[in-house]
Design brief:
alpha+beta, seven-stranded mixed β-sheet, two-stranded antiparallel ribbon
Length: 215
């Protein structure tokens, strides 16, 4: 049994993400949520990685298909994660060959994982002119160092299928943990949802995730 106080009855979080990794991170924190589909398309070009990730996160929130019974004051969360190396943005690999190419790029080098997070409080936050009282958008950047990978390492990892649906074609919480020699920044950001940043955004919008209470 969780010894902490329960969440208030009027707390509601809508997550505009199908990512099992994000679901797991929120469940591990004990945060109640429900998942909705977002019809937003992710952009990988046109701006630097931090700007793109924030834009994509906000687009996901605003394209969320909300249930009819969502409360007026519900929180709606969208997030987008990309990997960047030498100014090049790496999203999700479309094929095994593309995944192998990404891993060759990352081998023996530092790269950055960038997550944009958009958090809205209340349905009015969906308005394009919503301000800071109902909308918070920010990003987290984590530097990750890979050790050198040889062709056999890459082939074995690609064969595992773990790269599917992952920015940069790897999952740090899975087999790819064996590639990582260093992390500087939020580990949860590399998984797909920067929890320290998320807690700050919730506090700015009036809720304390740690104490499970309205600020």
């Amino acid at each position: 049994m969780d010894p902490r106080p329960p969440y208030p009855a009027d707390f509601e979080l809508i997550l505009a993400s199908q990512s099992p990794r994000r679901h797991s991170l929120l469940r591990d924190m004990g945060v109640p949520f429900r998942v909705v589909v977002s019809n937003a398309e992710e952009a990988l070009e046109g701006a630097e990685a931090q700007v793109l990730a924030e834009r994509n996160a906000l687009a996901k929130v605003r394209a969320a298909v909300l249930p009819e019974d969502v409360s007026q004051g519900a929180f709606i969360l969208g997030t987008d994660t990309v990997v960047t190396l030498d100014g090049r943005t790496l999203g999700k690999a479309a094929s095994a060959g593309e995944a192998a190419d990404m891993l060759r790029l990352l081998s023996g080098r530092d790269h950055e994982v960038v997550s944009g997070v958009a958090l809205i409080r209340g349905i009015e936050g969906l308005d394009a002119h919503a301000g800071g009282d109902s909308l918070q958008v920010a990003n987290a950047v984590t530097q990750v160092t890979f050790g050198p990978l040889d062709d056999q390492d890459i082939a074995a990892y690609v064969a595992s299928g773990e790269w599917r649906g992952k920015a940069g074609a790897y999952a740090v919480q899975g087999l790819a943990a064996m590639f990582v020699t260093g992390i500087r920044g939020e580990y949860s950001n590399v998984v797909g949802l920067p929890l320290c940043l998320l807690a700050r955004l919730f506090r700015r919008l009036g809720f304390d995730l740690l104490r499970r209470s309205w600020a």
